[in-house]
Design goal:
With about 110 residues, the chain is of the alpha+beta class. It contains three helices and four strands, in the order αββαβαβ.
Length: about 110
């Protein structure tokens, strides 16, 4: 479902549990929000049709935009995780978009 919604050249990988990473080239705030909304809509539709659950199944998205990628894959994943958990703390089923300073270390949740 995720791969079918992504533009050409995008990469996606399951990190573990329910976490998936998506890497896009030349993405804008608008494009990220558009893609995130489309993924949430598809997810909600599939979950409501295929799985009977006592509570709604939600999809929280955290995204990080940067001009220069972090120095390591671990730093890149940490930045995305920070945005993801901020999204979850904000009420779940949302999209959190962060843009750290290019020279900054990965942001920490406050």
């Amino acid at each position: 479902m995720i791969r079918s919604a992504l533009p050409d050249g995008a990469l996606t990988a399951r990190l573990g549990g329910g976490e998936t990473a998506i890497l896009l080239d030349n993405a804008s705030n608008e494009r990220i929000l558009e893609l995130g909304s489309a993924l949430r809509d598809r997810f909600h539709q599939a979950a409501s049709q295929d799985f009977a659950t006592p509570e709604a199944v939600t999809l929280s998205i955290g995204a990080t935009l940067f001009d220069h990628p972090p120095g390591s894959l671990a730093a890149l994943i940490e930045q995305g995780d920070t945005a993801l958990y901020a999204s979850k703390r904000g009420g779940r089923d949302g999209i959190r978009l962060d843009r750290p300073l290019a020279s900054a270390e990965p942001q920490r949740a406050r």
